[in-house]
């Protein structure tokens, strides 16, 4: 029998990546339902009779698809909104700071901290619930460490670091990985870009870094989707970044602590002056903790989610267009059926799928508007929730307890 701790970790992972797992499953089920509907209508047109088993399978596939997709959206929103910033320790004032999110990086974090300290006034590490000696090693190397009580993901760690940088009154901040992939020797190039007038400097690994052909092609496809929906960057998912204080303040206002950190940053700072910095990435065996296929699906869902939630007018337009097209196709299907007594295959299939797309988009839009409106009145931190938000406070505490081993 599976140990309880292992089961809890598995459940936390599914909840953390709910939009990827549930969302992808929901889309697949909807496509299967659409195909079943297409063949069901075709058989009806030929035999003038509807097969009960076929019709039932079609209905179940479409119903499960929409339910699973909606469950992914709701779970994702609930989990990412359960993030509670930990209390910050006393932070010295510093003009330049390094921001390092870390999770189980014992044996690597110390060297990164020591190298970063050569170029910056202060190094801040967000230990995201590590189970090894990451925090101790970082402190011994000279970093100020902020610890999360449990693993909340890179997005939560970066959200904590952004608040810490502002608390330290930083003028410039450099975000880099804790595992040694990012060479601290590149930090001066990032600082120079900011001091030259940029508010955001983003690393670009491709001039100096080789990547396996399959991964590179996949990355280019994801980058193209990112360029269309979010912003134009040659290496949009690179985590090596630098920010001016203006950029830090922008991020702090509307940063969602989800797993799509880089996409979130790119979207929020898409209207600020951004410079790309050529860097070299040092890959090693521990560089990637996630299967590259799952990682690719995570990126796709992150791009789509960010485009929908951060650009609500675009999402609203897509929702209305999908719904209107669905209605037009449905009317056309009914009209043709009354005339010919045949059901149009393509029109009927797309009418149903477009209706589902339109309603899911509208649900996401309404959900995000409600959350943003409510969060203006209720601070996202449990310790700062006013008395009229007691229910929200209890709900957040319950969610945190559910994810605690």
Descriptive report:
With 405 residues, the chain is α/β, with parallel strands linked by helices. It folds into two domains: 4-82 and 311-402, no CATH class; 96-291, Alpha-Beta Complex (Spore Coat Polysaccharide Biosynthesis Protein SpsA, Chain A). It is 59% helix and 9% strand. It is built from 14 helices and seven strands. The protein has a seven-stranded mixed sheet with strand order 3-2-1-4-6-5-7, with helices on both faces. β1, α4 (109-116) and β2 form a beta-alpha-beta unit. α2 runs antiparallel to α13. The model is unreliable at 378-400 (pLDDT under 50).
Short descriptors:
9% strand, 59% helix, 405 residues, Spore Coat Polysaccharide Biosynthesis Protein SpsA, Chain A, 7 strands, alpha/beta, 7-stranded mixed beta sheet
Brief overview:
Helix content is 59%, strand content 9%. It is α/β, with parallel strands linked by helices and 405 residues long.
**SSE sequence, one letter per element:** HHHEHEHEHEHEHEHHEHHHH
CATH architecture call of the largest domain: Alpha-Beta Complex
Q: In whole angstroms, how far apart are the ends?
A: 18 Å
Percent of residues in β-strands: 5-15%
Which parts are unreliable, with pLDDT below 50 for 5 consecutive residues or more?
Answer: 378-400
- Record the strand order, biggest sheet: 3-2-1-4-6-5-7
Helix/strand structural class: alpha/beta
The helical percent reads 55-70%
CATH class membership of the largest domain: Alpha Beta
List the helices and strands and how they pair.
Layout: H1 4-16, H2 18-47, H3 52-80, E1 96-102, H4 109-116, E2 122-127, H5 134-141, E3 144-147, H6 154-167, E4 172-175, H7 187-195, E5 200-204, H8 213-229, E6 241-244, H9 245-254, H10 261-268, E7 274-278, H11 292-310, H12 312-340, H13 345-377, H14 390-402
Parallel strand pairs: 1-2, 1-4, 2-3, 5-7
Antiparallel strand pairs: 4-6, 5-6
